[in-house]
Every structure is written in C-alpha cells, then in structure tokens.
From TrEMBL, chain A:
This is Acyl carrier protein. It comes from Pseudomonas aestuarii. It holds the Pfam family PP-binding. Residues 4-80 form the Carrier domain. It comes from the Bacteria.
Automatic annotation (TrEMBL), chain B:
This is Dihydrolipoamide acetyltransferase component of pyruvate dehydrogenase complex. The keyword Transmembrane helix does not apply. It comes from the Bacteria. Its EC number is 2.3.1.-. The lineage of its organism: Bacteria, Pseudomonadati, Pseudomonadota, Gammaproteobacteria, Pseudomonadales. It comes from Pseudomonas aestuarii. PROSITE patterns: BIOTINYL_LIPOYL (PS50968), PSBD (PS51826). Belongs to the 2-oxoacid dehydrogenase family. Residues 1-76 form the Lipoyl-binding domain. Forms a 24-polypeptide structural core with octahedral symmetry. It is an enzyme of class 2 (transferase). Pfam families: 2-oxoacid_dh, Biotin_lipoyl, E3_binding.
Length: 81, 391
C-alpha cells in the first residue's frame, strides 16, 4: 500500500466518525483532534477502526506522536506489514 | 383494549413526528419492543412499548406530528379478539378522540395512498442518510417496493433543491428552542446551588494506564467511565441527589440511571440515560457508553433512554475547560460536571508533586438538599476515585 492509499483509508475511517468532514478542507499538519473535533470517545473509536482495518494497534503511550494527520500517516507506514 | 400513547421523550420534548411504524395490525407485541420511530427536534427516537398485546389499530400516519400522551395505536389484550374489541369501542370514550392528528402541513404525504398497515415507508439507510442531510425522508416519493423510500431517493432529493422538509438550519433552530425552553424552566423553577472540588486522580490514571497498556483500542477504558461509576456508587449513599421533583415534592429514583450529556456533531446536545450504572462492571459500562454515543449521533435512541435518567453527568474535559457548572435537567434535582483531567501542582504528605487532577462540580436543587449534603457527596466521589480497583 502506498502513502496515498493509506491516506485514503485513514480519511475514510475518519469520515465514519465525523460524517461532516471535508477531506479537502482538512489541514494535515494541524492537530488532528482539533481539526476534526474528535473527543476522547471519537478518538478511541477511530483508533479501533484503524486497528481493525490496518492491523496496527496504537498504544496509549504513542498517542503523543499522532499530533496531525501527517504524523499519523508517518507513524502507521512502518507498522504496516 | 390497551391504548398506546406516545411516551414522554424527555423534559424538553413535548411532541414528535411519526417517521415510521415498525408494527402492523395483527402483529404480536412484546414488552420493550420498538414499535415506531418518531422524530423530535433533537433526534429520531425508537419508541418502545412496555405492554404486551396484539396490534389492533394504528391511529396515526407517518408524517403526523402529535403531542406526548396522544394515543397512537391500540392493542388487544390476551383473550380479546378484534370482534370483542370492536364491540367495546363505543363504550370506550378514551379511544375515540384520536388526538390532534394534524399531518404536518409541509410534508405533502399522500395520505389516501398510505394504508395504516403499509410496510415501513423509509429504509433505515435512507433515514440515516436523510438525517445527515437534514432532509425529511417522509416527504419524498418512494421508488422501492411498496413505495418504500430508499437511500437512492434520499440521495436524489439531496441533489435537487427541496422545497419541503426540514433543512439543517431549521433543525438547529428547533433544537436550540427546545434546549432553551427546558433550561429556562430549570433556571426559573429550580433554586440551584453549586459546589466544586478538585480531585486527585494519580491512582486512577496509573491504574488505567497499566490496564490499557495490555489492550487493543476496542478494549480500552476511558477515564470518563471511572468518573461515571464513582458518581453512581456515591449516589447510593446520597439518594437525595438521585431522583425527580414532581408535583411539589421529591421522588427518589428506584435505580441509578445516569443521563450522559452528549454533544451532537451537527450542534446541540442530548442526554440519554445509561442504565443501572452502579451495578455494572467498568468494561460493560464502557461498551454501553460507546454504543449510546453512537446511537445518539446516528439517531437511534430509545424512548425510555430519553425519559428515565435520574441525574445527569456532563464531561466537558475534551474541550479543554477546567470545570463546568451545569444547568439541572428537570425534573432531575442535580447535575455533576467534570472538566479536563490535567496535571497540576499538588501537595501530598507535605511534599509538592505533579498530580493528574479533575475538577468535579455539583449543581443541585435547594428544594431537596443543601450544600452540606452536596459537599459530602462530592467527598464520597473523591474517596471512591482513590480506589480505582474497587470501582
């Protein structure tokens, strides 16, 4: 899976949580939870969806590395098998 | 003959528009079965029936807007037949005035074509999509089998400028009005008092971190669930905060059903009940909270969940505020608020340290309790949160 496909899949899962999200308007270098207005429950559901779809289990101790959409993609890439 | 009336949908919901029937005449109805879907200013609600019987007649059509308490269906009790019920009808005045069944004028439903026994007229996917778009699905013409309104019909309507139906801005306006009405009533009638307490969560957060480190996202617990459980357990000791002000007096609630204030993505909020919180393990509560939030947002709450909360909890920590002092949701008599969990300077055993803390607040009704009682309640919440394993 290339970076573009990964980004597509992540955005699809985000849109399940936040149907009003317009991917073009999302600034991918800004804090993701503010950009998409994700509360802690939304965030956990989003990580659960990524776990199911991509098989990557992101531990709580790594949450601080996932500050933006770009950072999340960069984190996920090396974890994909 | 059982007359089924539109049940209460919460203090700020005094009417509903029937979206679809989930039953037909002749069907057997079990206790707790969802028999209809009703739209309110806030969300679509699945209406449950708490009596058993056989459906005799559906008294209103999809599209009709009726006040809470209006008879909307009649059921035959065990041993009754359609014939005996019909013979009874003239002697039953209550069954006759079939309420102000005024079909909402803007809907344009072909009433003549809609037999009461017609199948559900809107597919669930279509209703969900219509909700997202702020469309009224019952105003559309169905192209599916038996005239069912399908997802495609909704998508087609969203592309065309719709002259009828409730647009998102109208929906928001209606929601703001219902919230304003309930909150004005609360501030007018309830003499509120407010308390707050900063609670150390060092033990609780360390326990959660260890527990969550071993688990997948689906199995993780949020700190908010610990807070809910602590409130519920404390209410067992402080029952004067758990109940309702009705007919000039306090009625303690039999169970501890916590209303959870949930922000809706399109704006506004709704506070459905999480049932019997004190009796459930944290894992089960977490699952139920997740389910409740999802259902609140996609419009499949049940009528009982909107009317039986005995105290509401609001958690605004995710928005980054330190504390929240809430407005009591009538007829409840108290509301507990939690702000953000944040690390703060803290003194423990004479030593300055860094401690994760949360500010808990209580808004309570002076007709029922006093600050002294409320303070002891918050103290109990604090005590419980120091022993996370026992939650």
């Amino acid at each position: 899976m290339d970076r573009q496909q990964l980004r597509q899949q992540v955005l699809q899962e985000l849109q399940h949580i936040a149907p009003e999200l317009e991917p073009e308007a999302l600034r991918s270098d800004r804090p993701l939870r503010d950009e998409v207005d994700l509360d802690s429950m939304d965030w956990l559901r989003f990580l659960g969806a990524l776990h199911r779809r991509l098989g990557v289990n992101i531990p709580e101790s790594d949450y601080h590395k996932l500050d933006s959409l770009d950072a999340l993609i960069a984190y996920l890439e090396p974890h994909l098998t | 003959m059982i007359e089924f009336k539109l049940p209460s949908l919460g203090a700020d919901m005094d009417e509903g528009t029937l979206l679809e029937w989930r039953i037909q005449p002749g069907d057997a109805v079990k206790r707790g079965q969802v028999i209809a879907v009703v739209d309110t200013a806030k969300a679509a609600v699945e209406v449950e029936c708490w009596q058993e019987g056989e459906v005799f007649e559906l008294l209103i059509e999809p599209g009709a807007k009726v006040p809470v308490g209006t008879p909307i269906a009649s059921l035959l009790e065990a041993g009754e037949s359609a014939d005996t019920a019909r013979r009874q009808l003239p002697r039953q005045p209550a069954a006759e005035p079939v309420a102000p069944v005024a079909p909402a004028p803007a809907l344009g439903i072909p009433v003549a074509g809609a037999a009461p026994a017609s199948r559900p007229r809107v597919s669930p996917a279509a209703r969900k999509r219509a909700g997202e778009l702020g469309l009224d699905p019952t105003a559309l013409t169905g192209s599916g089998p038996h005239g069912v309104i399908t997802l495609e019909d909704v998508e087609a309507a969203s592309r065309a400028p719709a002259p009828t139906g409730r647009g998102p801005s109208e929906r928001t306006a209606a929601m703001r009005q219902t919230i304003a009405a309930a909150m004005s009533r609360s501030k007018r009638e309830i003499p509120h008092y407010y308390l707050s307490e900063t609670i150390a969560l060092g033990e609780a957060m360390a326990w959660l971190q260890t527990r969550n480190a071993q688990s997948t996202p689906q199995e993780r617990l949020l700190p908010g669930v610990l807070l809910l459980k602590a409130v519920a357990l404390a209410l067992r000791e402080y029952p004067q905060l758990n109940g309702f002000w009705r007919e000039g007096g306090f009625q303690p609630a039999a169970d501890i059903h916590l209303g959870m204030a949930i922000a809706l993505r399109q704006g506004g909020l709704i506070a459905p009940a999480l049932h019997a919180v004190a009796d459930k393990p944290l894992e089960q509560l977490m699952g139920e909270v997740t389910d409740l939030v999802q259902r609140a947002r996609n419009g499949s709450l049940r009528s009982s969940e909107l009317s039986d909360a005995s105290l509401t909890v609001t958690q605004l920590g995710d928005q980054g505020v330190d504390s929240v002092f809430g407005v009591i949701y009538p007829p409840q008599v108290a509301l507990v608020g939690f702000g953000r969990i944040a690390e703060r300077p803290w003194v423990e055993d004479g030593q300055l340290c860094v401690m994760p803390c949360v500010v808990a607040s209580l808004a309570a009704d002076h007709r029922v309790s006093d600050g002294h009682y409320g303070a002891r309640f918050l103290g109990e919440v604090r005590r419980l949160l120091q022993q996370p394993k026992s939650l």
